[in-house]
Amino acid sequence: MNSSPEGDRAAESVDLFVIGAGSGGVRAARIAAQSGAKVVIAEEYRVGGTCVIRGCIPKKLMAYAAHFADDFSDAEGFGWSLEAPPRFDWLRLREAVAGEVDRLNGLYRENLARAGVKIVEGRARLVGPQEVEIVGTGRRWRAETILIASGGTPNRPHHIPGGEHAITSNEVFHLPRFPRRLLVVGGGYIAVEFASIFHGLGAEVTLAYRGGPVLRGFDIDLREALQESLIERGIEVRCHEQVVSLDRREDGLHATLASGETRVVDEALFAIGRRPNTEGLGLETAGVECAANGAVIVDDYSRTNVPSIWAVGDVTDRVSLTPVAIREGHAFALTRFYDTPTRPDHREVPSAVFTLPPIGTVGYGEEEAFDRFGEVDVYRARYRPLKHTISGRNERDLIKVLVDAETDRVVGMHMLGEGAPEIIQGFATAMKNGLTKAGLDRTVAIHPTSAEEFVLLRTPVTPWRERKPETS
C-alpha cells in the first residue's frame, strides 16, 4: 500500500532526482554528482536505456551478424571457396548479444556508483513539483530539482483485431525461435533496419508500409535508392499497404492486409513509431505541460513550465537520438549545477540507418533545403563500388551533396553504401565548422575509396523535384 508523505518512511532530501537511467539521464546524473550535488536516479527496468538495452547496441550487433551473409557471398568472387554452406544459429547470436547488454548494464551501474549517484530500482512518479515516489513501495524523496529522462516507447497496434499477437522492437531481441517468415509493418528507420537484418540472417521478409517510398523525412533520393536496394536484395516491399488484423493459428500468424490478401508468417514486427514515455509519471499532478503526443514541453535549456522540473531526451520529442540525449543531459547539468547556461545544439545532427547497405546523413534533405534556402545546387552520384566489380553483387552506392547557392555552404550530405555512417561522421564535423563546396573541391581524394566521391563532385545535376515532378 502506498504511504502518504507523512507515512512510515520520511521523504529523503536530495539535490537532484532523475527519472530514467537511459543515456540522457545517466549523463545528467553523473555530471551533476561531480559538482558535489546529492543525486538519485530511478529506473524501473535496466540501466542504459533503449540504446543499450533494446536499441542501438543490440541492433548494431545484429546488423554485423546479418552482414556476414554478404561477406560469404562476395568472397567467392575474390577467389575464396567455401567448402560447406555457412549455417546461422539464432540462439547463439541472441545469447551473445544479451551478454554484451549485460556487460554494458553493469558498466553503467559502476560508473554511476563511482560518481556517487544512488540508483533506485522501481517506477518513479511525481507527487508534486519537488516530490517523487517509487510506485508501490511508499518510498519518497524531496528534490530541489527533478529531471524527467524516461525516454520513449514503441507504439503497439492496439487499433487492430489480434494486435496483441504483434511484437515490437522491445521483444525482437528475445525471440525464442528465429522467424523464418517475418512481416515488418512500418517504413521508418527501425522498420527498414530490422527488415534488412532479418533478411540478411535468412528470413523471408515482407515490409508493409502505409506510405511510400520508405524513410519519410529523409532525403528523397536516399529513400528511393534504399527502397530499390531492399527490393534488389529480395525483400518484398509493399507500399501503400496496411495490416488490418492478426490471427494466431496452428500454421502461423495470419496477417490480413487492407488489400484483402492474407499473409501467413511466424512473427509480425510492428515498427509504427514511438511515443514519449510519460504515461503514469504524474506530470499532471505536478503541473507539467505536455504536447498532444505526451511529450514534455521544454525551452531551449530543457526547462519545463515548472521551475523545479526539467526534461531531456526522447521524452521531449526534439531529436530522438542517443548522442543528442547525452548532449542534452550534459547541458542540463552544466546549466543547473555549474552556473554555466548551456543550450544543446540540435542543428546539423548526423545520423545513420543500419540497413544493408547502411545510410549516413547530415543536414537538410533536398526538399527541405529548397524550402529553406530557395536556390540550392545539387550534386549527386550513383556508382558501383570497386568491391562489387569483382564480387558480382548488383549494388550501387549513392552520394549526394546540397549547397546553398548564395553562400556556397554545404547544407546537406547523404550516402547509401558500405561504410556510409563512418564516412559521414567525418564530413559532419566539417559541416559543423562551415564546410563550403569550394572547401570540398580543394580537398585531395584518398584513392580508391568510396569517401573520395564526395570531393570529386564537380557538376550540379538536375534536382529531384525537376526530374520527378509527378511524385512530388
Explained architecture:
It is a single chain. The protein is α/β, with parallel strands linked by helices. It contains 14 helices and 21 strands.
Please tell me the overall pLDDT.
95
In helices, the fraction of residues equals 25-40%
Number of helices: 14
The largest sheet, given as strand count, sense and whether it forms a barrel, is:
7 strands, mixed
* N-to-C CA distance: 58 Å
SS elements, strand count:
21
Number of domains: 3
CATH architectural designation of the largest domain = 3-Layer(bba) Sandwich
Topology:
Blueprint: E1 12-19, H1 23-33, E2 39-43, H2 49-54, H3 56-75, H4 90-115, E3 118-121, E4 124-128, E5 131-134, E6 139-148, E7 152-154, E8 181-185, H5 189-200, E9 204-209, H6 220-233, E10 236-239, E11 243-249, E12 252-257, E13 262-265, E14 267-270, E15 274-276, H7 283-286, E16 309-311, H8 322-337, E17 351-353, E18 359-363, H9 366-373, E19 376-383, H10 388-391, E20 397-404, E21 410-416, H11 420-432, H12 437-442, H13 453-456, H14 464-467
Helix pairs in contact: 1-4, 1-8, 3-4, 3-5
Please give a handful of descriptors for the protein shown:
single chain; 472 residues; alpha/beta; FAD/NAD(P)-binding domain; Enolase-like, domain 1; 3 domains; seven-stranded mixed beta sheet; five-stranded antiparallel beta sheet; disordered N terminus
Task: Briefly summarize what is shown.
By secondary structure, the protein is of the alpha/beta class. Helices cover 31% and strands 24% of the residues.
